Amino acid sequence: MPTNKDFKRLVRARMQKTGEAYTAARAHLLQKKQASRPVDYARLAGMMTDAALKARTGCTWERWVKALDRVAAHAWPHREIAHYVHEKYKVPGWWAQTVTVGYERIKGLRAIGQRRGGGFEATKSKTFAVPLARLYRAWSDARTRARWLADVDLTIRTATPYKSMRITWPDKTPVAVGFIDKGPRKSQVAIQHEKLPDKAAATRLKQYWEQRLAGLREVLAPAR
């Protein structure tokens, strides 16, 4: 098993031989290495299980990788991959993004917590035992939101009721929020805090959102 330094040497050697960029050379070598043993695609994607993804998009991670590899999607920009998944396979926008990000991680085009262009982001999701409408209202209604997200002067730029929001954080970083109906009394929120300066900021904000969502759970808990 080569060490991380050994693998970097192999990447640089391929770059010299083929003229590829570091990202492309790394992706090819990862694919070659993965071909020699069973691949845990869900672990590489770092997002959700095969069962959860298949329930929402109709395919497991392995199926998505094969479908996107057939059209050499690893060479496309992020927006083009997401558009292809949405248009070709009729996957809703939020889930098309999920497939795209997971595919890019599997192909070595970005690390967990890192955006395709090199920036970083913090992601967090949580499921609550409440109907979708109540979960959405906890975000959209300023008075309810203040109970679990106090002292944050955010701006809701756009919102599609019961589906998604685009928020501008006080430091001007964007936050994408998706809402998922999981049944009559169960719903999920997924947060993507984008354009963060470094991995440390992404780690800090991931912990922050974990704490805030724990507070939201208390607000949504039935009165005793």
Structural features, described:
The protein is an alpha+beta fold and 224 residues long. The protein has 2 domains: 4-106, no CATH class; 120-220, Alpha-D-Glucose-1,6-Bisphosphate, Chain A, domain 4 (2-Layer Sandwich), CATH 3.30.530. It has helices spanning 4-18, 22-35, 41-45, 50-57, 61-69, 78-89, 93-106, 132-140, 142-146, 199-220; strands at residues 120-128, 155-160, 164-168, 174-181, 187-196.
Feature tags:
224 residues; alpha+beta; Alpha-D-Glucose-1,6-Bisphosphate, Chain A, domain 4; 2 domains; five-stranded antiparallel sheet; 17% strand
SSE topology sketch:
Blueprint lengths: L3 H15 L3 H14 L5 H5 L4 H8 L3 H9 L8 H12 L3 H14 L13 E9 L3 H9 L1 H5 L8 E6 L3 E5 L5 E8 L5 E10 L2 H22 L4
Helix pairs in contact: 1-2, 5-7, 6-7
Percent helix: 40-55%
Main beta sheet: 5 strands, antiparallel
Can you tell me the number of structural domains? 2
**Count of distinct strands:** 5
Tally of helical segments: 10
Report how far apart the termini are.
55 Å
Q: Which geometry do the CA atoms define? A: globular
Strand order across the largest sheet: 1-5-4-3-2
Radius of gyration: 19 Å
Mean pLDDT: 90
N-to-C SSE series? HHHHHHHEHHEEEEH
Parts with pLDDT < 50 across at least 5 consecutive residues = none
Name the assembly state: single chain
Strand content: 15-25%
Structural class: alpha+beta
